[in-house]
Amino acid sequence: MINSTIDPALAYCLQRFAQLDAETSTPQLDQVQRRRLLSELQARLLRTQPLPDIAVQHHYVSASGREIAVRSYTPARCSTGQTLVWLHGGGWMVGSLDTHDDLCEHLAHYTGHTVLSVHYRRTPESPFPAALEDVHAVLQWLQQMQGVLPFATSHVMLGGDSAGAHLALATATQAVLQPDTQHSRIQALLLFYPCLLPQQDNASMRSFAQGFGLTAQAMAQYWDALGGADHALRTPSLCTAALPQLPPMAVVTASHDILRDEAEDFVRQLQALPQGPRVLLQRADGMVHGFARMLAASPAARQQVEAGCTMLQQLATSIHTD
Question: pTM value?
Fold first, then answer.
């Protein structure tokens, strides 16, 4: 049973997800395929009519031996001319452009930026750092396409939810540790409930391990499937040499989420640095992990996403491009 202290609309949403899980028989699918299917079915269950005045286009980025699908969302009115590159959540294993379609439309609406959603390679077929390489390729593409596509620029904001937030932070950390003149400059980060470290044992992990959407067991499985155990950027929050030079960031956590404490501990670590980046933190009360992609079903979740976008706008006022 879902705890009554969370938003009732999200509680109902989780109940519908549980019913969908129970009613979907897939004996021919393995665990990864089943999780991906359920992720897509959940998105269809919640999908509403597209927002008006958001122009959506599909693009394909050529990279070594592959193509990366991306989708742009550009507000027809009040466009800022800036670009927010978005990396979807899903434990690095599930999630897609479609599962985060609603969210990306709203991000474009609330910020006025063009939002570019990236479908990076997923685990377990493509272990870390494959997804990170895809993000890097998209940022290079944005720089190369200046003057061709209106949203292509050498200065971007970067964001993501859950595993996508992890990849956004890893990308920003890589940009500090391995400077590359062909890499778009990351001006700011917007991170919704990032997963940062495996094998956590803290109050939120213990309190919300079951019954609140993402479980502790599932998170452990996602980390195992991620691979790349010896790669430094697998755990970017531990790359202490890069932390003072990270871009400003807005971090949104969920009150009823196993990942809450690790994200908030990281924020406090950054805020304690003598000359660290500016970091804004918002704990979304009554929210569970994944609330941002469920915003179509919950007015409270929409308000929290809008508040996160407002924090990003606050950071933008202090950003000066070269």
Answer: 0.96
